[in-house]
Design brief:
This protein has 85 residues and is mostly helical. It is built from 4 helices and no strands.
């Protein structure tokens, strides 16, 4: 499988570019909300203690669309890493 766009047909390249554009628009319009959801999840960390990770997984699994859940997951991971110092 080639990742070189020059090896793709014009319709395949157009489909790839359309998907990239869709994902960028989703990211751009939902970044603030994703950061807010990540902060909310982090806010539960002290209260839920050892069960926090499991609870966060359940919350992320319930989010839709999956691309949005991935944005929140990335932000939670960034916040956890920052908290570790």
């Amino acid at each position: 499988m080639s990742y070189n766009l020059a090896n793709k047909t014009l319709p395949e390249r157009a489909a790839i570019e359309d998907e990239k554009s869709r994902l960028f628009d989703l990211w751009q319009s939902n970044l603030g909300k994703a950061k807010g959801d990540a902060a909310r999840l982090m806010g539960e960390r002290a209260k839920r203690k050892g069960k926090w990770s499991e609870w966060v997984r359940g919350e992320l699994d319930a989010m839709s669309p999956p691309e949005y859940a991935n944005m929140v997951r990335a932000e939670v991971n960034r916040l956890v890493a920052a908290a570790r110092g």
